[in-house]
Amino acid sequence: MRVLLIEDDRHVADYLRKALGEVGTLTDYAADGREGLLMAASGDYDALILDRMLPGLDGLGILRTLRAAGNQTPVLILSALGEVDDRVEGLRAGGDDYLVKPFAFSELHARLEALLRRGAADAPETRLRIGDLEMDLLKREVTRAGHPIALQPREFRLLEYLLRHAGQVVTRTMLLEQVWDYHFDPQTNIIDVHISRLRGKIDRDFETPLLHTVRGAGYMLRAP
Fold this sequence. Notes:
This protein is α/β, with parallel strands linked by helices. The chain has eight helices and eleven strands. It has two domains: 2-122, Rossmann fold (3-Layer(aba) Sandwich), CATH 3.40.50; 127-221, Winged helix-like DNA-binding domain superfamily/Winged helix DNA-binding domain (Arc Repressor Mutant, subunit A), CATH 1.10.10.10. The chain is 41% helix and 21% strand. The mean pLDDT is 91.
């Protein structure tokens, strides 16, 4: 875990840097709001620990600027301002959690871990995989055993749907609705043709087949 601590109280900062280091967390540090904003905007951090009252630029100003720029790094606000209105203001400015000083490190660490778990759950899925077949959704690339596989757009959508339902039987009706956006049976062999082409590309040159026909039911991507 790599964290940016923006805190102008040197005693608190030293304490947190030492304690975080003991649990294996790499901690960068800024004592000034403007410096902290620059580091937060340019660095790759798993989370920020942010004091509200800072020289140069206050914590809420940092938060609002980061969120307006699309930076969604989880932020734990750390502040001596502990009234309900203070906490609500901090959360509405874009904070993900709010911890009032004085605090116990064990609680701060647990809150950081919770923020990271939440961020991981919310993160969009960018890769799909079964066996040695992998799809990169961002690059729109498919490989098997490291070898690139060229797919047409409809074939890519078909394989993506099968990958998202790997190990499950996918029926013709499901494919018509989800891949072709048909809510009726066109009475053609369109699915059979595309399945055959897809099977030829992902299975033909490899020893182990992944795309299987489930007779009378549909199709399934399954690794041995």
